[in-house]
Structures are given as C-alpha cells and as structure tokens.
Amino acid sequence: MKTMLNVALPKGRLGEKVLDIFEKAGYDCPAIHEQNRKLIFENEAVGVRYFWVKPSDVSIYVERGAADIGVAGKDILLEYEPDVYELYDLDIGKCRMAVAACKGFRDNTERTLRVATKFPNIAGNYYAKKGRDIDIVKLNGSIEIAPVLKMTDVIVDIVETGTTLRENNLEPIETIVPISARLIANKVSYKFKHKEITSLERKIEQLCSELRKEG
Ligand code: PRP
C-alpha cells in the first residue's frame, strides 16, 4: 500500500492557491473539488490526504503529527514558534507585518505604548528588542478600530494591499517583517516519511520556480 502524506491546508484564498500548486505538482485530488462540507479528502493513487483547517491552526496539526506537512504563513510561525521544520518559501500569500497608527501620530517615548494586535508574541519581541515599554491589547480581528477609538496608540498587524489601513485613516509607520507562505513538516514524519516528503518538496520547488519564471 502506498504511504499516505497527510497535508494540512489553510482554508480560504491562500489555501486555494496552495492546493492549485500541489495539484499541478502531481498531488491532485478530484474529491476535494466536489461541492460539499467535508473537510478531509484523499487520493490513494498519488498518496495524499488533504484536510482544510483554519490558517492559524495549520502549525498545530503539523507540530502534533496529525498532519505530516502543511502550509502556514510566516506570521503564524513567528507568533506560535511551533517545533516544526520550515522547508520552503512558496513565495505566495505575500504581505508584511507592520506597525500602523492614525495619520499624524507622534510617539511619546516617555509613556508606555499601547499596542493592539492579534500577534502578541511578534509585537512583544519587536518592542523588547527596541527596549520600548508596551501594553499589549490582544484582539482577534478588526484590529484597525483600536487606535481610531483611542483604545491603543498603534496596531501591529498584517498589511497586504494597505486598503484596510487607508480606509480607516491609518498609515503604516514601521515594517516589522515580510511575510509569505511556508511549507512546513512534522519533525518525526520528516524522518519516517523522508522519501515521500522530500520528493514532494522537490516537485513543489520545481513547480514554484517555473511559475516564478513565467512571472
Ligand atoms: C487582515 C489584516 C488586515 C487586512 C489587511 O485581516 O488583519 O485587517 O487583512 O489587508 P489589506 O492591507 O489588503 O487591506 P483579515 O482579512 O484576515 O481579517 P481580520 O479582521 O479577522 O484580521
């Protein structure tokens, strides 16, 4: 029987792109295109089993070995620091982690900076390196509202097109780190399914470099 690779895919727009890449690389799965609410799909012929999970949960499935591999944003990897191998930068889902504030904001360094974010670890590390005292307000979404309502001075959040910031009269003031989607692997699976994982990795790398050449 063929060894199956369990793959955690991030639900949503990024996941659709990732699935497209995997399928073009030879890991197609007709069942996943049927219209239903199932979350697990497999194609035994090519040795792949996909499951859709929340993007922020991909690294949990991979770290615990429920998935052998997965694709997660660098933001999630920096925030949760899961004990997984980061194999490859897929160069999609590109955006940046940034500090943003209301237009005209001036930082008063004598006061504790109030920071709203979904990423307390990234924000904490960033300001710790700068030696800046902060008070983190952890939110789960719609972060942009916090400074508008004067609940915080700044936000630390993902900026992709910048539209959300602009439309809420905010502006980016510092870039913390560029973000993109990464292929990750469970450490034990990487040892015991080494042949399957490295072969997949090679095919994905090759396809991505061809796609890059095509522009
Ligand atoms: C993300 C992020 C910003 C927005 C940035 O939110 O938190 O709000 O996208 O994209 P833009 O620069 O292209 O406008 P998401 O859509 O994940 O929703 P959220 O409010 O739940 O964080």
Strand order of the largest sheet: 2-3-1-4-11-5
Question: Which structural class should the secondary elements be placed in?
Answer: alpha/beta
Query: Which ions and ligands are bound to the chains?
Result: 1-O-pyrophosphono-5-O-phosphono-alpha-D-ribofuranose
Biggest sheet layout:
6 strands, mixed
Look at the structure and give the mean pLDDT.
Answer: 96
- Strand content of the residues, in percent? 25-35%
Distance between the termini: 39 Å
In which range does the helix fraction lie? 25-40%
| Element-level helix/strand string | EHEEHEHEEEHEHEHEEHH
Note the overall shape. Answer: elongated
Assembly state here? single chain
Number of strands: 11
Q: What ranges have pLDDT less than 50 throughout 5 or more consecutive residues?
A: none
Continuous helix count: 8
Roughly how many Å is the radius of gyration?
20 Å
Features of the shown structure:
six-stranded mixed sheet; 11 strands; binds 1-O-pyrophosphono-5-O-phosphono-alpha-D-ribofuranose
